[in-house]
Amino acid sequence: MGSITGTPELSDSSTIFRALVTRATRRVAGHNTLELARYEVGNAIVKENRIFKTLHPDQAEELTREACILLDNMTILPTEGNEPAISLTAIKTGLTYYDASYMHTAKTLGLTLATEDTQLKTAANQTGTPTTSLDELT
Question: Is there a smaller number of Cβ atoms within 10 Å at the N or the C end of the chain?
């Protein structure tokens, strides 16, 4: 697990996935994220193939390789020891535990949360956690 990087953003899986499919990975390379992003991005790729039928298996495999490279170039922040606070955040906001993990970590570390998820963005803004999206990142 890495320590916080010089970038002030914590990118969630929705921003990472969008960066991959729009070929805008440079916008999030070097950002902070959480370990669960690896699994969430992988699941999004599988869903694009299996449910939405927008990715051929070969494309899904290649996108997964690109995701691994991108995630290896991001700083993975730990959530260990914060589980009770994350659960409480999820309960209070109605967010999933996964989304609450990103929001809690961003708020606690004073990071801007990069997300494409409107529900997460709204909840974060209501708690004073700044947010951004892929389109706003340079």
Answer: C
Could you say which of 3.90.1150.10, 3.10.450.50, 1.10.8.60, 3.40.50.1010 is the CATH number of the domain covering 12-136?
3.40.50.1010
* pLDDT in single tens digits along all 138 residues of the chain: 456 666 799 999 999 999 999 999 999 999 999 999 999 999 999 999 999 899 999 999 999 999 999 999 999 999 999 999 999 999 999 999 999 999 999 999 999 999 999 999 999 999 999 999 999 998
Domain residues of the chain, as ranges? 12-136
Q: How far is Cα 60 from Cα 18, in angstroms, rounded to an integer? A: 14
DSSP helix, strand, coil percent of the chain (3-state; round to 5) = 55, 10, 35
